[in-house]
Design a protein that fits this description.
316 residues; seven-stranded parallel sheet; two-stranded parallel ribbon; 11 helices; 15 strands
Length: 316
Amino acid sequence: MGRHPGLGAHHVLVTGAAGFIGARVARAAARHAGRLTLTSYRRPPEPVPGAVRTVRADLADPASLRGLCDGVDVLLHCASQIGGTPEANEAVNARGTAALVAEARRAGVDRIVYVSTASVYGRGTFRRAHPGQLARRPQSPTSRTRAAAEDAVLAAGGIVVRPHLLYGPGDEWVIPGLGRLLRDLGGTPTGWTSRHSVIAVTELAALLVGVGLAPRERLSASVYHAAHPAPAPASALLEAAAGCLAAPPPRRELDVAEARELLAGDAAALHTLDLLATDHWFDSAPVWADLGRLPGPGWDADFPRMKEWYPAPAAA
């Protein structure tokens, strides 16, 4: 690594360009890159303007990665296996990322940026937590293998970006997951005050491209949290999810202990509840400061603009 051409001259490679995050990163990168290569495996990426090359590549098949990074200046790695078998997670997230990083190093890629997840910290309560203060304790196959992917990127001098909760068009996890929780509870709890780091997927995409293209001297860390600086209270997240359901459940007074009793035996619902019930607030100030960016509107003002996208998937 060493070369870093001027803004607008970069050849940027985006992996997972047909995914929830990668598709938005591809659009954001197209506004700044001189050349853009997009990779996906299961389906083709959406068209974006500019000098774009699309390549079918599979992280689980290292042979498909050969030559992928030739001539590339910046690699924005957005492809991950989420859920599925432990073997699939290992093949894609751990071994696949290691193979991709090796290819990037062979090709002399100047910067590697990997979008990971705050789930690598495991269970706990997090209050304005900085990456340097936290130990990783991943507890699922997805989180463990994404931590292994982080290790490969960091060992190559790359940068890791960890969001927590993402929302916006394409979200199949956060608001839909909260909607399923509300249906299981038979109501919308009120007054839950735990705080959560959230960010719109479009805002995350802009941060990832910014980290990829910023001069090295502007970047103060190798690991960043990515979130709006103002966390969202759990009650606001639950109200938002209720508002996206075709038949919103009634609001009701229900504390966390009562909710756990109602969900007894449902491991997936209890996992969502446990995450929601405690603070997951991660300090994201460094990434905004290093990039000289001002955050967009907070959750209360921003989510209503995206609400219309959610009803069909949230009610499925």
